[in-house]
Design brief:
The complex is a heterodimer of chains A (319) and B (45). By secondary structure, chain A is an alpha+beta fold. Chain A is built from seven helices and eleven strands. The chains are: A alpha+beta (319), B mainly beta (45). Chains A and B meet through helix 1 of A and strand 2 of B.
């Protein structure tokens, strides 16, 4: 439960950083171990497919990830906890493990979420893991991939469908590794949540706010220790910095909204994470959650033109 | 028609929440209520 001062600060500024909110051992270690196991499985598969010449099983997680990345193996979609916004195939990889599901339902996280949007909490399907390599090793083809490289300034309402404009969506940016200005922590524009929705354009294959519409002096980097969480409003302008360190920077961005409100991704599945009024509606089995995503993947495979935002790039400012 | 709620002045703190709604925040932060309309009693001397 957040303090009165924290709640007031969130509503006033549009964001709130709470350092070490999560318990490292209980909330994050199981997630880290689950990803180590996933990387084991992926490496074995890539070796079997001839995409990787060895499994690098003697290397620690990060060094192994470097080798995998250098070999051209796309670990980031296989690690992600949502389907991509386009080009979904019947076999598009997605990670739906129990530790990640438990993180989505962490009592420490949901208690803070309740302080900001109330006790009827729906897990919004706009969610990602981002394990970003040092910029110096990023391939040119991934230089603007938001799962790998820096993200442009944007508002979360700007990258969702307009159906969510009235939704009390709350983003929770969870630091798994330490996040610093050097390794690409998030930066926010304080009080920008009161400014309305800004024009977004396609910039380097990302949806973002053109630089000419941003006042760079507004930017405030938000460093966090592992287990720290940055909460922000869906109109809060934010982006991430480049990873100029020698290590990976690992975060999750999770979202919640009051039950019954539009998610902004109607084709993707969410679930009831907490309900004071109707506790039996809570989804507590990770296998059911996983099946919802697998059903969505089967339904959406090879369908073209699925809209995930409202923008057309027609505005002259997008030129 | 908007709901009219009368709140004892000592009940908590009213603020405009991040989504533009009026929020009654009880002083320990433990509970909160969203209000559509509110009148606030004047504290008595």
């Amino acid at each position: 439960m957040l303090t009165t001062e924290q709640i007031e600060s969130f509503h006033e500024n549009g964001f709130l950083a709470v350092d070490r909110l999560l318990d490292y051992e209980e909330d994050l270690v199981p997630v880290i171990e689950e990803y180590q196991q996933l990387l084991d499985e992926l490496c074995a598969q890539w070796v079997a497919d001839g995409r990787l010449d060895q499994s690098y099983s003697d290397l620690p997680f990060e060094k192994r990830l470097v080798e995998v990345y250098r070999a051209g193996c796309d670990y980031y979609q296989a690690f992600d906890i949502a389907l991509p916004n386009g080009n979904i195939k019947a076999d598009t990889p997605i990670h739906l493990g129990p530790a990640v599901f438990n993180l989505l339902r962490s009592p420490r996280l949901l208690s803070a979420v309740e302080s900001l949007i109330g006790g009827e909490i729906y897990s919004n399907p706009i969610q990602h893991v981002r394990i970003k390599p040092p910029s110096r090793i990023v391939d040119r083809s991934d230089a603007h991939n938001a799962l790998v490289s820096a993200t442009h300034w944007h508002q979360d309402n700007g990258v969702a469908l307009p159906e969510a404009d009235e939704t009390k969506m709350l983003t929770c940016w969870v630091a798994v590794s330490e996040a610093t200005p050097e390794n690409g922590c998030l930066q926010v524009a304080p009080k920008s949540h009161r400014e309305g929705i800004a024009l977004h354009c396609t910039i380097d294959n990302q949806i973002g706010i053109p630089d000419k519409l941003m006042v760079q002096e507004q930017a405030r980097p938000v460093p966090l220790n592992p287990g720290g969480v940055l909460f922000f409003h869906p109109m809060c302008k934010h982006g991430s910095l480049d990873n100029n360190s020698d290590a990976f920077r690992w975060s999750f961005d999770l979202r919640y909204n009051p039950i019954g409100q539009a998610t902004g991704r109607p084709h993707f599945p969410g679930f009831v994470a907490q309900s004071r009024l109707n506790p039996e509606s809570v989804l507590a089995d990770y296998r059911q959650w996983g099946q919802l995503w697998l059903d969505a993947r089967a339904r959406l495979a090879d369908i073209e033109g699925i809209k995930s935002n409202r923008w057309t790039d027609d505005d002259p400012l997008c030129a | 028609m908007a709901e009219l709620t009368t709140i004892p002045a000592a009940a908590g703190k009213l603020l405009l929440d991040a989504w533009g709604s009026i929020l009654l925040l009880e002083l320990d932060g433990a509970r909160q209520r969203q209000l559509s309309c509110a009148t606030i009693e004047s504290p008595r001397a």
